[in-house]
Amino acid sequence: MASSWILFAIYLLTSLTTPVNGTHQQYKRSELFKLGENASLSCINKTWNQIIYILWRVSMNGVNCSITKEAHGPVYSSCSNRVTLYNKTSGESQLHIAHFQLSDEGTYHCEVAYNHGNYLLMIAVNAIVSPVLSAQLYSNGSHRFAVCSAHGGKPAANVSWEVWWSSPTITVQVRSEADTSSNITAWLELPDNVTRGNISCIATHTSWLDRRSVTLNLNEKQPSNGSAANPTFPKTQIPNQHSHRKLRRWNPMQVMYSVSTQSTTPLQISMDHNFSSHLEVLCIHHASHGY
């Protein structure tokens, strides 16, 4: 029995390193799945009439397993019973993950030897988790803030404010949690002359078909800085020099941007709300003093 396993391992290695007819293909892609749904991963658009063997190597948060099958042989698996190989009606093989969980996130390598070559595919698999959206009013001395939070989203949500006044001062903060989810908080500093009416926090997320919103009534009494819901108030940069500059690109998992102005000239902010890449802030203002 041990000899047959050794011969099979040698066969796998030589098949993967020695392309048939010189064909050796390697690809990468990513997949997102909602928690609790059945997930299917396709590897190659070929049927078992063309495939010699297929091997899946899975790395999930430090837990490794594999599942393999030859064209006319049984399936060998060291993975969970929820992870299985099955054939589509067209005859193509897929990896099936029943009731997708956070623990199933990881890297899935598929290796196929077929009649005319070898095929390698790496799939980055992650969960989709809907964030919880909320909005509140806070005060910190003479400063008043409307704060919108999208908590626990995977991937990160995009959050913004819809207001009726021009040139709002907004600070967006992104915090990554230990479970790789993200908390997005958008701070809107309220002008002194804005004391009544409604404003809306708008959020979008991969798990939602449409954008979602929370309406905040500015007539409500704001909790003080010493309340039980005391937040960490953002620090702002006070530009007071004529400038036209692009601020540095921040790590998307740190504070994304913090801008404000004391000048009467409107502050123009150009932002990319895709927090998975980068955020650029373009400040254009005029003032009489230097930094």
Q: What report would you give on this structure?
A:
There is one protein chain. With 291 residues, the chain is mainly β. The chain has two domains: 2-128, Immunoglobulins (Immunoglobulin-like, Sandwich), CATH 2.60.40.10; 132-288, Immunoglobulins (Immunoglobulin-like, Sandwich), CATH 2.60.40. Helix content is 5%, strand content 49%. The protein has one helix at residues 2-17, and strands at 24-34, 39-47, 51-60, 63-70, 75-77, 83-87, 92-97, 106-114, 117-128, 132-140, 143-153, 158-162, 169-176, 182-189, 198-204, 212-217, 241-246, 255-258, 282-288. Strand 8 and strand 9 form a beta hairpin. The model is unreliable at 1-22, 226-230 and 235-291 (pLDDT under 50).
The major sheet is characterized as: 6 strands, mixed
* Strand fraction: over 45%
- Tally the helices: 1
Q: How many β-strand runs? A: 19
* Strand adjacency order, main sheet: 1-9-8-3-4-5
In the CATH hierarchy, what is the architecture of the largest domain at level 2?
Sandwich
CATH C-level category of the largest domain: Mainly Beta
Helix content: under 10%
The gyration radius over C-alpha positions equals 27 Å
Tally of individual domains: 2
Ends apart, CA distance between termini: 76 Å
Shape: elongated
CATH superfamily of the largest domain: Immunoglobulins
Element-by-element helix/strand order: HEEEEEEEEEEEEEEEEEEE
Mean pLDDT score: 75
Low-confidence stretches: 1-22, 226-230, 235-291
What is the CATH T-level topology of the largest domain?
Answer: Immunoglobulin-like
Structural class: mainly beta
